[in-house]
């Protein structure tokens, strides 16, 4: 069985709670990503900010680009370990209505698996269609 380690993005760049909304927006644009993990100096996950968070929790509430990520980040974080099977990862994503799952080892971030990673992995035990249907059904 394939695990999230087989398909996750491993070169994940974290931001800190004190980085600004603008920092996150620029980072997402430069790397063509829809979220950024918020970590401490040792890569312990403190939260996550998505492109949706920038809009709904930031700009829609009148926050300017100088506001810090700590003000808008999601702190109720859903994670899995690197040995989590892809089917289980999709179950977790569907249950929590998320499109990205942070992968940790010893409580430190080592990667991110996103819906698109599951779709792009042609050798996955799950068909791309099944993965998307399972996750999107509840989102």
Could you describe the 3D structure shown?
The chain is an alpha+beta fold and 139 residues long. It has one domain (4-136): CBS-domain. Helices cover 35% and strands 19% of the residues. It has a three-stranded mixed sheet. Strands 1-2 form a two-stranded antiparallel sheet. It is globular, with a radius of gyration of 15 Å. The two termini are 26 Å apart.
Radius of gyration: 15 Å
Number of strands: 5
Give the H and E element order: HHEEHEHEEHH
CATH-scheme architecture: Roll
Q: Nutshell version of this structure?
A:
This is CBS domain-containing protein. The protein is of the alpha+beta class.
Descriptive keywords:
139 residues, alpha+beta, CBS-domain, 3-stranded mixed β-sheet, 19% strand
Write the layout of secondary structure elements.
Elements: H1 4-7, H2 21-31, E1 35-39, E2 45-50, H3 51-58, E3 79-81, H4 86-96, E4 100-105, E5 108-114, H5 115-120, H6 128-136
Parallel strand pairs: 3-4
Antiparallel strand pairs: 1-2, 4-5
